Amino acid sequence: MPIRLPSLRNGVMFAGLAGFALMPVFTGVTGQPYILDITMRMMCLAIAAVSLNLILGFGGMISFGHAAFIGIGAYAVGIPAYYGEYSGFLQIPLAVGVSALFALITGAICLRTRGVYFIMITLAFGQMVFFTFVSIEEYGGDDGLVIDTKSEFAGLIDIEEPLALYYLILVCLVAALYLVKRIVASRFGRVIQGSKSNDDRMQAIGFNTFRYRLTCYVIAGALCGLAGALLGNFTGFISPDMIDWTRSGELIFMVVLGGAGSLFGPVLGTVVFLVLEELLSALTIYWQIIFGPVLILVVLFGRGGIDGLLSRLANAQR
Amino acid sequence: MHNAEPLISVSGLRKTFGGIVATDGVDLEVRGGEIHAVIGPNGAGKTTLIAQISGALQPDSGVIRFAGREITDLPTYERARLGLARSFQITSIFHDMSVVDNVALAVQAQDGHSYRFWRPARTDPVLVDRAMDALARVGLDGRRDDNAGKISHGERRQLEIAMALAAGPSALLLDEPTAGMGREETARMVEIIRSLKDDHAILLIEHDMDAVFALADRITVLVYGRIIASGPPQTIRADDAVRKAYLGDEVSDHAEG
Predict the structure, then answer these.
(1) What's the gap in Å between the CA of A82 and the closest CA on chain B?
(2) Secondary structure of chain B in HEC code, one letter for each residue
(3) Across the interface, do B121 and A208 touch by the CB < 8 Å criterion?
(4) B97 FRET partner, CA 20 to 30 A, in A251, A281, A285, B245?
(5) For residue range A12-23, what is the model confidence (pLDDT) as tens digits?
(6) Fold of the CATH domain B1-83+169-257
(7) ipTM of the assembly?
């Protein structure tokens, strides 16, 4: 599946990123800082969705335990902070490294299975992480842990300042998108996509697809660990709730809603997901009764999600 | 380019599925520059045989050698890397990629490791040039940018061969390359296979007897997983057991014609 970026999709992507970049100006003028908060959360989760899309959308690996990496990333900030270690140069590599290691170990097991079995076993590992953090009383158990001081970067950037944190997250999101764009078009990316399309054939032409898929799983896990570290810094409070299997399900919805296997789709999916959540929950406390069917309709009838819709629009214009 | 040493050599191969013996003590050799056809009625175990040689299935017992090296326990992808390529009876391509991308992926498989994360692969001349060579050999170079899912059945069968070729193999396992083809397409495929013979050892499974007798240097007849005859085409044509078991009238037609 070559990445085709017709002008409309490209336009939407640049408009979206420009929108993120200008949001602080907007909220500054209108005086609605809470919109800035929502956007920051949105961008953190968008990084997670982009990382999930790498394995799910491009590699066909439907992981139902991806939120575990968000949790690992967040606790890699929270636990050192709990002991008074605030250096971001320690916390961020720890978040990325431990996530990668966890992905390597669990991926080596999960990727021996396919289809429903893969979904179930990734779910099981995700829940293992969830219950691990629930059971560690030292770090708050299921009450969670407050991060009183955000990551420090030796004076380079002070993310206690909301705008600094905001733009750090945005830079990470853009970098994640660029990374995925390059990977998907590279030789490695072709192997991943070929393996999704027809794994038997890939082996017959000489690829040890397991190793490539595992590498891809590790990259996605590490990237999601970064998203978790950013999210932990943003919320200032972490709890096992971030790792719950419903969170993993939400990430899948964001990817599918936006368009699995498209570069910018997961970001669109995250934005629409969180905006809908925000609007509907203001409407009624039973908002999920409306939200659920909307998602099901998109999955059933909106082939390719929002991104698919955009490309159909672009084709219709020609 | 006949070599004395067989490139593919199978001995005492046996495979059972429950109570069914799919491969029953098969011995077989294919030399470079030779087309060795395996024929037999449906369910004779032809595809099972190819699957074992290619590594998709593990035999219960027996030895498979390739270029003198035992490969019985090697996984599929390592056999492919040694130069043993296969095509599939049921077309197995990447439907969501272009024709040239399908073949380029097969080239890539043989061009070192693929832990290359940064440079775009689609415009890599190393991959594209060699893919185009393989496409030209099967006459598909005019369709390079078409979506592989959208080309005709006959063209997909050609693509199937091009993907096997792209790896630059020394041996080809072709599983019914003319399956589902019309007369004209079959004739074209026969010519393609004939043109590959000089620089490959070819194990051919085929139902189309015209194609088999037009191409094969040697024919092995498989019935219920067991070899009942093996030899040059004239011998097989004349063999009573083969006529009775399998070929029937079809061969008499050939003998007369």
Answers:
(1) 37
(2) CCCCCEEEEEEEEEEEECCEEEEEEEEEEEECCCEEEEECCCCCCHHHHHHHHHCCCCCCEEEEEECCEECCCCCHHHHHHHCEEECCCCCCCCCCCEHHHHHHHHHHHHCCCCCCCCCECCCCHHHHHHHHHHHHHCCCHHHCCCECCCCCHHHHHHHHHHHHHHCCCCEEEEECCCCCCCHHHHHHHHHHHHHHHHHCEEEEECCCHHHHHHHCCEEEEEECCEEEEEECHHHHHHCHHHHHHHHCHHHHHHHHC
(3) no
(4) A251
(5) 999 999 999 999
(6) Rossmann fold (3.40.50)
(7) 0.84
